[in-house]
Every structure is written in C-alpha cells, then in structure tokens.
Design a protein that fits this description.
Elements lengths: L15 H8 L1 E4 L1 H8 L3 H5 L21 E11 L2 E4 L27 H4 L2 H18 L6 E11 L19 E10 L1 E3 L2 E5 L5 E4 L7 E5 L3 E5 L2 E3 L5 E11 L9
Antiparallel strand pairs: 1-9, 2-3, 2-4, 4-12, 5-9, 5-12, 6-11, 7-8, 7-10
C-alpha cells in the first residue's frame, strides 16, 4: 500500500498571529520561518549537526531506546533573553499521563547553539508572537527548549509516546530540523473543545507548527524505517507566562 501524506497548510509569516487567534494554529514553510525569526535560512540549517550528538532519554516509561534529547530554559523580558541555571523538566499528569509528575533531568543544550544570533532571535520571536497573539498586557515569557532525535534503529520510533496532549503552556512551536530514511511522523492537531482537526506531514527542514496550547491538542504518529539508521529531528519550544510549570504550582 502506498504511504499517503498530506501537505502542511502553510500561511504567510504576516498572518501567523491572526491565524493563531482565529484557528489556534499556524504552519510556516522554511523561508517564512527564517523571515519570522529575523535571520537567513542558512543560519538555521547550520544548527542541524547539533542533533547528531544528543544523549539518550533515560526516562521513557515504555522501555524504548528510540529518543535522544537535550533541554534548556530561557526567560524573555522585552528584548532581554536570559538562560536560566540548568533545571529539570516537569509536567503534571493532567498534561502528560505517561511521564507527568517526574523530575526529568536532561543534558543541557550546547553553548555553541544557544549563543548564536539565530537562537536569540528565535527566543525573541517566540515571546513576541505569544505577546501579540495571546496576551492582553505586557508579560515576561518562560521558554523551555527541547532538542529531540527519534530514531528507528530498534524498529518503531515514537515522537509522542504520551499520545495526543497539551503541554500546559501558552504557545508551542514544533520545528522540523530534518528527517532521513523514515516514513510516518504525521502531525495531527485537534481542537481541545471542538470537532475540527488537521493532519499533515512536516518534511521540509525548518518548517514549523505553532499552536495555541490552550485551544489545541497535538500528537505525531510513530516513524518507521525506510533504510538503516533512520531518524527524525525536531526542536520543540514551549512558551508560558507566569513562570515555568513547576514554579507556577501546576
């Protein structure tokens, strides 16, 4: 049977904030991602090798060895971007039934990545979009950054082993960094309190899905090998006002 994929519903970068307000999500193609972030696409593409050396995720409750990751946290206040001292990642069970309630310590992101102009622009763009689309007064924004590699060396790789979920934040960005020798990995988004949904496959490096997390549920289907050493790399950013989840008493 042929493997069917659906193209992402791309929008121009100037329509992202309005699309988030109207529909709860927006998808940008790579060159428009770079425009939104205020950099060249080449500045993003040069970051990709950092995903080739991610440490294993030691917290997978399904016993899998298919996920590698790094994690760091940032605070954006106006134009100021501050990286916090390294901290654990935490989610309540209401948002992550599989891994919620755990203090998960992952290796921090590399300085060579988070000190680039493109990265600092990314932090400001995320906070700026959240402020424009989702806030009614000036806010300080708390951003968690996750580098993921899902591989198929053991067979099936699961980008979202917890299933369809929300993250308990304001804005979520899922950037596709790259994919090689895999099939599957379809993005699925659903209204949290309605019948509408979308399904599509991100395949172009540095295309991005942006979600109003209060309104949308999301998941990515498993990937399967189409050759040896297949993988799918993503960067997931979550942006929240009022503090990180574990600081806000959630």
């Amino acid at each position: 049977m042929a493997h069917v994929t659906f193209s992402p519903p791309y929008v121009p970068p100037g329509q992202v904030a309005q699309q988030l307000r109207d529909r709860g999500y927006a998808v940008l193609q790579p060159h428009d991602t770079a425009t939104w972030l205020g950099c060249e696409l080449a500045d993003l593409l040069v970051l990709a090798p950092d995903w080739a050396d991610l440490p294993p995720d030691e917290f997978l409750k399904d016993g899998g060895r298919y996920r590698r990751r790094r994690h760091s946290c940032f605070i954006v206040d106006g134009d100021a971007v501050h990286q916090t001292p390294h901290r654990f990642h935490w989610q309540p069970v209401e948002y992550n039934a599989l891994h919620g309630g755990m203090q998960r310590w992952f290796a921090p992101m590399r300085d060579a990545t988070v000190h680039t102009a493109a990265w600092l622009g990314m932090m400001r763009a995320m906070a700026g979009l959240a402020q424009q689309a989702l806030a009614t007064r000036p806010e300080r924004w708390y951003i968690e950054a996750h580098q993921f590699r899902i591989d198929t060396d053991g067979g099936i790789g699961r980008p979202t082993p917890e299933g369809a979920h929300r993250d308990g934040v304001d804005l979520v960005a899922v950037f596709l960094v790259g994919r090689e020798r895999v099939k599957g990995g379809e993005t699925r988004i659903f209204e949290a309190s309605g019948p509408k949904g979308q399904r599509f496959t991100l395949s172009e490096p540095w295309s991005v899905l942006l979600l109003d997390d209060a309104r949308m549920i999301h998941e990515t289907t498993p990937i399967q090998p189409e050759g040896e050493h297949g993988w799918r790399d993503t960067l997931v950013l979550t942006c929240r006002r009022g503090g990180f989840l574990q600081d806000a008493g959630q």
